[in-house]
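does this look right to u?? adenosine monophosphate version
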Amino acid sequence: MIKAIKGTKDILPDSIGKWKHVENLISLIFKNYNYKEIRTPVFEETSLFARGIGEATDIVGKEMYTFEDRSKTSITLKPEMTASVVRAFIEHSLGKKQSLNKLYYISPMFRQERPQAGRLREFHQFGAEALGSSSPLLDVEMISMAYGILSGLGLKDLTIKINSLGTPESRKKYTQELRKYLNDKEHLLSGESKERISKNILRIFDSKIENDIEVMKGAPLLLDYLDNESKDDFEKVKSSLTSSKISFEIDTSLVRGLDYYTKTTFEIISGKVGAQSALCGGGRYDLLVEQLGGEPTPGTGFAAGIERILIACENENSFEVTEPSINLYIVCLEKTLMAKTYELAQSIRRNNISVEMDYIGRSIKAQMREANKFNAKFALFFGGEEYQSHKSQLKNMETGEQEIISLENIINKINV
Ligand code: AMP
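got this back:
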C-alpha cells in the first residue's frame, strides 16, 4: 500500500471548512491593510535560498528538499517565501512600478525536519512582505496583522515577543563581545552550540538544552549594543504597539533562524500547542533585496504556519464551522427515471442552486438518509403519481412541510 510521505498530510473534505475559514480571514485582514496577493513557483534555483536565507542556517544546512533536475540544475522546493518574493520583486522591477509594495501569500512550504506534532515536511504558511520603506510603523503593521488574524480565529493564549537585532555593524560588535564571554565557557556548551560559536553564534540563544540556557543567561545583551537608529526604531515599535493596545514582551534571546533579519524581529507564541509553540515569526530585513542583486530596498515581513495555528484553535476550541449544506436532494422514486432525474438536477444547477441525487440505485429510505447527511434544505420526490402531470412533492427539510409543486416552479420555490 502506498502511503503519503512521512511529514506530509492529506487535508480531507471534513477539515476543508476550517481551512477555508482561516484562509478567508487571512484574505480579509490583508485586504483591510491593502496587501496584494502574490504567488510564486513551488521550486526555485537552490542558490536563491542559499544566498537569501544564509548557508549557516538550519534551513539551508540541513532541511531543504534539494535535487538535480534532468538538465542538472540544482532545484529546491521552497522552504520559506521571503526569498522567492524578493526574487520576484527584483525580476519584475516591482519597486519601479510602485515605491512601496505590500504583498501577501498563502502557500505550501517544504523542509526536511524531523516530523512531530506541529512540525511537518510539507506545511502551509501565510505571510506578508512590505518592500520599500524602513518605517517602524510597517513592523508594527506586520505584528498587528498577524495578531489580528490569530485573535480573529478566537485564539486567546497568545504572547507576542519582540526584539531588535540591530544593523550588521552593531551585531558584529556584539558578537565579538559574546565570543569573549563564551571563551572560557565553551566546555559547558552542547556539541551543537559549540559548533555555532564559529558558524552562527546568535543561534546559541535558540538552544533548548538546559546547560546552554544556563550559560546564555549571563551573556551580554544585543539590545545593549544597538546603534542609535535601531534603538530609536525599536522605541517607536514599542510605543506604537502600546498605543494600538497590543501587549508584548521583550525577549532578548529572540534571534530567529534566518540570517537576513535586521532591527525588529518578533514571534507570536501559543501556550496551547506544546513544544512547537511559535505560530508566527518575522521581522525587518533591510539588506536582503540588495544581497539578492536588487537596488537597496528596505523590507519587513512575517510568516505563520496554518497547521500549527489549527492545532492551537483545536486545543482552545476557538471556532466552529457549520457543515456546508446543499439546497436540494432529488429523491428518485423509480430507477427507470434516473436519467430524467439527472436532467432535472442539471437544469436546476444551472441556476446556481446546489443539487444532489442518487447515482448508485439506493432505496428511497437510503436516499433520504443521504439528503439528511448533506443537510439538504429541500427534498424533491421525483416520480410516482405526480410525474405524469409534471409535478412533484417538495419537502422543506427544516420545517417538515410538504407540498405538491409544478416542476416549472421549482427554482422559485427553492429560492424563497
Ligand atoms: P519560520 O519561517 O521558520 O520563521 O516559521 C514561521 C512559522 O511557520 C512558524 O512559526 C510555524 O508556525 C510555521 N512552521 C515553520 N516550520 C514548520 C514545520 N516544519 N511544520 C509546520 N509549521 C512550520
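The chain has 15 helices and 16 strands. idk if thats expected tbh
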